[in-house]
Structure prediction request, 380 residues.
Amino acid sequence: MRDLVILGSTGSIGVQALEIIEANPSLFSVVALTSAGTHPDLLIAQAKKFGAKVVGVTKNADLIRQALPGVEVIDGPQASSQVAAIPCDLVLNAITGSIGLAPTLAALDADNRVALANKESLVAGGELVISRAKEDQLLPVDSEHSAIWQALIGENRSEISKLILTASGGPFRDRRDLSTVTVQEALAHPTWVMGPVVTINSATLMNKGLEIIEAHYLFRVPYPQIEAVIHPQSVIHSMVEFVDGSTIAQASPPNMKGPISFALNYPHRVPGATAAIDWKSSHAWNFAPIDNAQFPAISLARECGEIGGGFPAIFNASNEVAVQAFVDGRIGFTKIVQTVEAVINSLRATGADPLRDLADVTAIEDDARRTAHELLKKVG
Prediction:
C-alpha cells in the first residue's frame, strides 16, 4: 500500500490519477489533496471519497473547512508546498503552471518521491530541481517523457543517439493560414482532452518546445540530440534512437492513465490501467517533420534551452501571459509566439544569468510577465 499526496487533484491529471487509485484500493491510499479551490464541490467530494486527512487550497477555504470536519485544511499561497512536504511514498504534482515549482522543490527536500506532471517545474527551474533530486526520486508523468523513460530501462545511457518526441500536431497541423484561428478552434484538440492552457500550447506546438526543455533536464541529453516529429495518431508516445541505428518506441492508446499509473506504482505496472492496442485490427501510423516556419515555438524553445539561465523561465512565463491574452480575445493566435519572442529579445541582457534559488526564478518570471503585459498594451 502506497501513501500518496495529489497536488492539483481537480485537474485532468489529478482526476485520472484518483480514478486509478479508486480502481486499485489495495495498492494506493490518499493522504492529502490540494487544489486551487475554484471547484470546491469536486474537491470536497474527492476528500470524502478517498479519506484524505489533509486538504490544501488557495480559495474557498472556509467553505471547504465547514464541509470537511475533522480534515486539516491548509490555505494560502504556500498550501501546496506545505502539503508536498508531508511524509509519504509519492507526491503527484499535477499542478498547471510555474506555481508548481515550489511544491516540487518542497517534496524533493522532504525526501518524497515525485511523480512530475508539472512540466513547468523543469522548464522554469530545471537546474534547481535536478540538483536536488536523488536517483529515481523524480518520475515523469507526461506521456512523451514516460515513453522515453520506459524505453531507457535497462539501457546504457551513453549509447543514446537521439531522443525523439512525438507531437500530434494539434488541430492545425494541416492548416497553412493560422491568422484567423479562433479560441474555439484552438481548444478543439483532435486527440487529447486536456486543460485549456495545455490545449492551446499544443495548438501552437509550444507544448512540444516545453517538453524538449523538460527532456533535456530529465535525461541529461544535449539539445542537438533531442528532436520532435509529427505523429497524428498519438499511439507512439516517443522514441529513443541508439548509436547502432536501432530505435525503441513505446506505444499505447492515447490515454494518460498508462503513464500516470506507471509513475504511481513504479517499478511495477498497474494491471488494466488502460486498454491495450487491438492488434487484430489494421493500423496506419504516420510520421512527418515539423514545419518550423509554420510552428516557430520549437526553435524558440530550443534557443532558450541552449542559452540556459533564466531564458527557459522567460519563455514559459511570457507564454502564459500571451495565451491568456489570446483566450481573452486581445491578440490573434499567431501573436502568441510572436509575443514570447519579443519578450525574450527584450530581456536578453539579464535573462542568461544563472538561477540560484526559487527567488531568482520568481524575479525573472515577474520580469517576463511584466514585459509581456507592456508589449501587449502596445499591441492593443
